[in-house]
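INFO worker-7 received task bundle
INFO bundle size: 2
INFO processing item 0
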Amino acid sequence: MAVHSILILGGTTEARQLADALRDMNRFRLKLSLAGRTKVPVEQPVPVRVGGFGGAEGLSNHMKANAIDLLIDATHPYAARISANAAKAADISGVPLIALRRPGWERQAGDLWTEVESVEAAAAALGHEPRRAFLALGRQELLPFEAAPQHDYLVRSVDPVEPPLTLPHVRYLTARGPFNEADERALLADSHIEVIVSKNSGGAASYGKIAAARALGLPVVMIRRPALPEVPSFQTVKALAAHVDQAFPAIQERGE
């Protein structure tokens, strides 16, 4: 039986779930690629490679060398550069590309959102008067807040922030989601948070802080999603796995 090779660009909960679902079909050669930004990644159900490819050309060469039949972009909604490289590499190599893109959060009644285009704009949106701000962002996205040292920051990240920010008032919390609403409400209340800065990541794992902010009447500075390449995409693991199942059906061996 011919075995099809699938490369999954991951780093999200959905990527791990997708790898698990495709593995259970027992007819694919799977590899999950991680950028390597998280020091201690979650254990994955399939073989993993860590690190970049060297841009679109490098990714294209990797797929050719490893006879990849399908590329799946299941990266974070804000991994715009990786998604752009994936689209370009697919064009160069001729390998089909599909994407798993979770829907963003929708504003609901009671949400006090200020939507901005970038992390720099989010730092500016905090204003000139000192505020207690909860930053729910990745380590690589925190430097712009050094330009707003008047605020008192609570930073939560998966890995420790190293080196620490050069800010007079900053506390750090290392934790990995999912985070439920009740715990988030307690954290925000106990820390006397006045404003939250968040990306519109979508999904349930980190929505607790958004629901908690609504319940507490706290404003949220929401960083909009970047534009991503237009490629065939699916919003759920189930839908994408079903598509792959149909696109690469099992081949039944004939008897004598």
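INFO item 0 finished
INFO processing item 1
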Amino acid sequence: MGLLFRAWLPILLFGLLALVPLLAKLGAEGFIISLLTRVVILGLAAMALDLLIGFGGLVSFGHAAFIGIGAYSVGILSSHGQEDLLVQLAVAAAVSVAFALASGAIALRTHGVYFIMITLAFGQMLFFLATSLAAYGGDDGLTLSGRSTLAGRPLLKGDVTLYYLSLAVLLLAYLLCRRLVASRFGRVLRGARENEIRMEAIGFEPFPYRLVAYAVAGALAGIAGVLLANQSEFVSPAVMSWQRSGDLIFMVVLGGLGTLHGAIIGSAAFLLIEEVLSHFTEHWRIIFGPLLILAVLFIRGGLVGRLGRGL
């Protein structure tokens, strides 16, 4: 029964997400749509990270840098008059892939804690670069004049439209990642995670597979950054801080490593708990931190694993 539930869980998850705008009409519609849009967008970034951690064993502590690349693609292009979403998505994806290939070519030649520290260093490098961009707000960030246009039309002005666009992008990214991990590419990636020497012995060099996975994850996180900038209509260096990278890792682990849809569930749980606690006290992080640690220690397999065992 548990295996059957887990097989149907992605369908149930996306079905519920598709119904959110309808269910939101029963309550504070604007607030619910805004919160769930963030869940979907950060779920996209967390799912991209799960491709690295859950299937490649690559714990990146600079993943938020790609979100920042996407967000600043919107901010910089908009400030120069280019507000078309498709152009911004293309630029964000291209720059994210280029940065992933350049940084990954160095970081992926290391292992374990060295890989973590190098990805953190590259992430912080972009963070400090963003703070130095005085023309685009520097430390204070950049407020956008409005949301991006699509084919010259303000189709994203409505919150519901942006939500469904974000959900559609998440679904396409999920199907792409599922296809990747089910292919020979994914099997090599998982095999290198388990035993790199054995994979080399049978004729597979893990490095190029890992580099491609790193580039794909970077591109998806960059796209998430474009959507996040449109959702908040604000761009700030904070979106690429190491704390945000840590949040994404927690989302992945909380939802369930190596499941893809678990990262989306982890994103929802993370943001909902954060939202609830922030209403009780301004020092909510003191409570939130231990809760996350306890969840990681005692919910083996994440929320997806817990749900499967509970049936």
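INFO item 1 finished
INFO post-check item 1: The mean pLDDT is 89.
INFO post-check item 1: The radius of gyration is 19 Å.
INFO worker-7 idle
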